[in-house]
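This follows on from our talk about sequence and fold. Can you supply me with one protein entry, sequence and fold together? Could you add the entry underneath, on a fresh line?
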Amino acid sequence: MHSVCSETFLSYFAPFGSFVVNTKFKIGLDGGGTKTELILVDAAGTVVVRHSAPGCNPSQIGPERAGAVVRDAIAALLAAAPPGGARPAIVATHLYTAGSSIFWKDFATTLREHGQVLTGPDSLPVLELATGGAPGLVLHAGTGSFVAARAPDGSIHYAGGLGWKFGDPGSGSDLGRRAIGHALLELQGWAKPTALGDALKAHTGLADAVANTRFFYTAEDANARIAGFAPRVLELAGAGCVPAQTALACTVTDLVEYARLVTTKLFGSAVVPCGVSGAILNSPPAIYALKALAETHAWPVEYRFITEAPIEGVHRLLMKS
């Protein structure tokens, strides 16, 4: 017998010779282009284990690799569960992921001993954080971006999220693309040199426009490299770099245009909560742009700036199931 046992630990297992696994565990997963986050939750709603893995968007890394990332991540999550070796029985698994919904539904059928497996878009957790199940919408920008809304009748709607090939305004990919485009003009000598051009050279380690252009057209992880430039663009925008501020204002404006179309069609002129999620949109220069756009266009929304990670929205959805 153990001399010291915490009540929390014993609440998971029966006090008999060999441990009996609690049968009320659930798995929650939020998978995007940059990272995949998972939680293991007990019957009381307590998060027992957390785990992070690389991004799992099949549109970026391919279906086979995306499935492998999720399988490995779930295995690692369960391996870390108490008592450190015994696999807990799972009654439900929620997968909220970016990329093809058809792929993820097919993938879910391959999961064994994971309870009832539910799949959904990665928009649902942030929408949950924004409105808590009430009517409203959310703008989210990570590597990609989207607008999600819950109408007064409870139906869920989705705008954008079309991937880097078709824009994804507000995203790291789009912000990086716009900023790199201007920086390349600087390196060509057609635009006045600014800190943006120097930042691009530091980002790639290449000195001229031709080498930088070739780099982004030939690198296998070009989209990740483009999106990876976005944090530096935000820093420069906050420091007063005009081209960086322009790139940010343009990408945010295009995302807000999506959101205005959604709010007009679903809510008319009613004031509704509008969650703002992701590091890009929650940066000071983006917040300024968002507030200015709402005032300029008389857009009837009540901003709710979300600092919680999407996995916390997954946690809430797990508790509702």
Remarks:
- The chain has a mean pLDDT of 89.
